[in-house]
Known about the structure:
The structure holds four protein chains of four kinds. Chain C is 18% helix and 20% strand. By secondary structure, chain C is of the alpha/beta class. In chain C, the strands form two sheets. A five-stranded mixed β-sheet of chain C has the order 1-2-5-4-3, covered by helices on one side. A two-stranded parallel ribbon of chain C has the order 6-7. The model of chain C is unreliable at 173-196 (pLDDT under 50). By secondary structure, chain D is α+β, with helices and mostly antiparallel strands. Chain D has three domains: 3-116, Roll (Ubiquitin-like (UB roll)); 160-296, no CATH class; 305-526, Rossmann fold, CATH 3.40.50.740. Chain D has helices at residues 19-25, 103-116, 134-143, 178-186, 216-222, 287-291, 313-324, 342-356, 384-390, 397-405, 440-444, 484-494, 504-516, and strands at residues 3-6, 9-12, 49-52, 62-68, 75-81, 84-85, 96-98, 160-161, 166-168, 192-195, 202-205, 228-230, 243-248, 257-263, 268-274, 305-306, 309-310, 332-337, 361-364, 411-415, 430-435, 447-450, 459-462, 467-471, 525-526. The longest helix of chain D has 15 residues, at 342-356. Classes of the chains: A mainly alpha, B alpha/beta, C alpha/beta, D alpha+beta. Chains in contact: A-B, A-C, A-D, B-C, C-D.
Amino acid sequence: MEALDLELDAGELELPAEPMHLNMGPSHPAMHGTVRIVLELSGETIVKADVQIGYLHRGFEKMCERGTWAQVFPYVDRLNYVSPMLNNVGYALAVEKLCGLSVPDRCQWYRMALGELARISDHLTCDGAMAMELGAFTPFLWFVKAREMVWDILEEETGARLTHSFGRIGGMAEPPTPDFKGLCRAGLPKILDLVEEGERMLLRNRIFLDRLENVGAISRADAIALGWTGPCLRATGVPYDIRKAHPYLKYDEVDFDVPVGTKGDTLDRFLVRLGEIRQSKRIIEQVLERMPDEGPLNCDDPRVVLPDKMAVYTTIEATIQHFKLIMEGARVPSGEVYSYTEGGNGELGYYLVSDGSGTPYRVRIRPPCFQITGGLSKILEGRMLSDIVPTFGSLNMIGGECDH
Amino acid sequence: MGDVNRSLALQGSEQGYATTRLDALLGWARKYSLFSYPFITACCGMEFMALTSPRFDVSRFGAEVPRFSPRQSDLLWVVGTISQRQGPVLKRIYEQMMAPKWVFAFGTCAATGGFYDNYTTVPGIDKIIPVDVYIPGCPPRPEAVLDGLMLLQDKIQRGERRPGVVKPRIDPAQQVSELVRLRRSAGDPRALLPALREEKRS
Amino acid sequence: MSQLVLEKLRQRFGTAILETHAHFGDDTAVVDAGMWRTVGQFLCDDPDLDFDMPIDLCGVDYPERVPRMEVVLHLYSIAKAHRVRLKTRVGDADMAGAELDSLVSIWPGLDWLEREVFDMSGVRFRGHPDLRRILMYPEFEGHPLQRTYPADKTQPLVAYRSEAEAGTPLEKLEPFGPDEGMPFGRGGLPRVAEDI
Amino acid sequence: MPTFKLDGKAIPFEAGDTIIRAAYKHGIEIPHYCWHPGLSAPANCRMCLVEILPKPGQRPLTLDILALDPQSGEYTVKQKPKLQPACYIAAAEGMEVAANSSEHVRQARHDVQEYLLLNHPVDCPICDQSGECKLQDYWLEYQKTPKRMTDEPVHKPKAVVFGPTIVYDAERCVMCTRCIRFMSEVAKDPVLDMRERGNLNEIVVAPGRELDGHYTFMTEHVCPVGALTTKDFRFKARVWFLRTAASVCQGCATGCNAHLDYDPRYNKAYRYRPRDNEAVNKYWMCDDGMLTYKEAHDGRIVGASVGGAASSMAKALATARSLFAGVAPASVAIVLSARHSLEDNWAMLHFATVLLGTQNVYFSRRPDGYNDQILIHADKNSNTRGVMQLAPGAKQLRALVDDVGARRITHAIVLGGDAPVDASALATANVVAIAAHEGPLTQIASVVLPATSWAEHAGMYVNAKGLRQTAERALLPLGASRPAYEQIADLAVALGFARPASKLSQIRTQLAAGVGTDPVSRRGSALVV
């Protein structure tokens, strides 16, 4: 019998390949429960990625218009819930700018120390979670262990592990505990050791490196035009750090470097964060040197600062002051102000509008990872499906702040 | 566990069998092998991480295995605020889970909506799905969560489905009365000042 | 901060700059809504200004004013390290004519921000690639950050369980009323509108 | 008009005005405790001290004081301007007064405030005044310093019962004597006075008397602090949870302007406060009037009923339809109410004359009662004059009783439940009542439809002087009650007529056109008849 004629024309060999639609999240282990990515795939390549947020929209800005200025603190805690203290300090600075207040030096140092601790916990969480999502579970345990140590210090200071609500207009809720410095000096080396350890486990791991390197890269110009800030921007090589560019608190008096990357890919973002952990340690050490142990913590302005609790119980003046501040709220002069600090993910801005009453007329937060997540789809398109997890993880998208 | 232990002790293990009620055995088996589905949305997720981490180590209670497919899991951790937009997703996932299934309301937001009393937040997931254990706290400490887990295990053992709430270990009312006693005992309240400050420090 | 930006804007556009101030060191310029895009282009292109980074865009609602909605844009220049706040006002009492030219083509980073302002405040941006809701779901009606939208008016996607179904009271107990914890000396709850 | 300068700002004044009154009229508040626009000025709180600058060429009025020199610790004789009470010095042309601008004045305010708080108890958490207390406001504005005295404060009697309505707390009292002056000057019953001096100083009731009469509540409202509290409002609510609506008192035909304070969370009214209106009640209200806020909840009809048994609205309307089936309009009576708003009555009248086409229009009212020369009017209805203007020919209810007795009237549609006469005879007729409150007429009515009270819908009322005033809405409708004009519209539809206007705006426009009055103002406007 004759041989089979295998000369088929090309068309018949081609498989039908219309793009496949894949829905990732919102309840996906790597999507932090709050993001949904509708993917358009051809094979394993992402043709189009539609990032949908808003699953954790909690009406932060609307709620702020209902309470007093001081009642906003618990809400800002829960914006970037990985580094609440930075949000606290940022908001306090914003309102103080509007009131024309400046807090005593001791408070400024204290705010810096707590803020940098929060930054450490932020970066630990981000890098740890990212590693875990890539299957490296052990370093995650290491990092979380280190984060627990940070939280121990913060808990000792504020009484809460995570959501401190510790900032106040014109100061902080409590002065530093006597053994604050001791705790930091004892804790920081251990934390850094753990970071080293986890780092060694990851950065000598070829699989890990291969999955990060040259993945999710973005150019300087794009990053800037997209409004990226923080580690994600610095990973592209732009040394824009508000602590350097527009120093607030006492950042101009301490000595630290701004780690930057070169390629702006996922690995750079990972390394920049690790580098910042070390810089934060440096800052904290200098703060501990320079923070006075005595002296006032809160500025003495009875219109915004609460009186001593025992005085409230015993004297009518303090009772009235407390009553006015709690029930009516501190009166903030009318005007508008935009105040920005370096948050865990970048420029954390507050745009406040006051009508002179005890209630904010408008509190607008500028969440750094809103724009960062906004750029996600651009750096995903054209990549492979498996690149989503490391890329998304390295952006450190925090639902509370991204969705307001 | 109790029944099994006792019957084993009575019968003696050399006889190689134990007698117990089937539901008790099932309950015992179930409560120590909870496959959990972490439905993590918000702040409480940080504490959930801490819960799974070495210090608090939820695996001591046999509930560490996360299954990200609802069909394979029987304990739904609703961790964090549920927005109206998230509502259908939550309901869908709950419906996909196989019976018997249990639900944790992890944190105040999941339990009542917390202080997000506004246009976008579901005021408590029990508006949408039934809840077995409410864990208050914003976010709750891991210890409280472990309390809730033990509470749930107890309920599973007893086959009870009434919702339960994790109570604080220390009764706040008691503390208040203590403060009042202090306040009354002192003639001049200002005399209390240093003592209380010390108390706060320690 | 230096007045350079405001100076240049005033020179370049004159009357299109309705007002300027620098309270708390934030240079602010209120521009005519029609010139929104032109001014933006200028800020981006002018070598002395060189505003390359879009920081933030938001709406502030003043129900009693006309135009009602104030759209606030914050810009930053990495190279020059200076900032500016650009404001414009659109929309009448019921937000009719609340439209602006989209600036996405100038700063891609404004894509989501403009969607958010549309979603939250109800300002429509002409020429935006896809102007969808971003934080709220498509079924949502109204714009929450307009002050006339009651803070606690929910629009659930899934029907709540009935008490009978749940077996427990689902309503929140006092004192978690809508007015709880609000300081006095303020309008408080939105007044129930007369049936006029 | 002559002017003087206050902090460099020109303030116009009329001859005889004091500085503080001129500023008050001009909308500038000079801090004060004892001064009250409606009372005489004793100038005893010293809070309103101002510095009156000398005329050019004159030497300033000064005091010699011993000032402590912090360096040497020695006391030296210094001179400081003599401050004068703004509530006592008459404004004069070209006078220059320094208040906020004078550092001496600010110091004086600070010191006066500190003295007033010297012995003040730590009561804010349990004080009904807190939230609207002058001591609190002025501390934040003018003192801002913590307590310096460490001694035990002076203790005085607390919770002294002054009478059936008022409780007095001597420790909170700042001795402004407003209450004393009110009782003697306005209430014409000088039952309060002051005894002892200095630390023992307190307000007392005249021996053998207690603080009673018709104007006791006002003493609480003129009190700038929490010293006087009414037993009615005591510990009932915290003021910062209350919202207020500009309402009109329903107690009598005087129509005092009042703030109706209510809690939106519980949809409950808590108190009446007088609302200043020079044309009507100045700054005052009477006790009975202030207690009428209770009528927003007491004796209310919140559901439809048929033959005395509760029923659904639909069933009630169906019953009314069957009752009125085939009845000649001539034998149907329409009864207006002197206690319902103009809108309600207009809707009823419009229904009668335009839709039904009957001339049998009567009106019901509450019987007269106590009256005096100060505020209280004998007519206990808030809108008698308004009804008279709407339907000048409306007959008294007695006439209706006679007509029903004579079988000239077999059916009646009644607004309001009140009757000045014995209405039991009306039971023989078929009565449909639309009322907010229980009353003789609702007792005998076969069908009762629930209407909202004045607190639950905006309405206009014409007081005895012919002044038309609007009351804002405060509460949401209770139970199934709805504004009477809506009920009337539904009834009309049920009886087979086209639906009449049932929107407030429509009614008001037609009302204005019909009665021909100038537009309504909240403060009340004279009526053109």
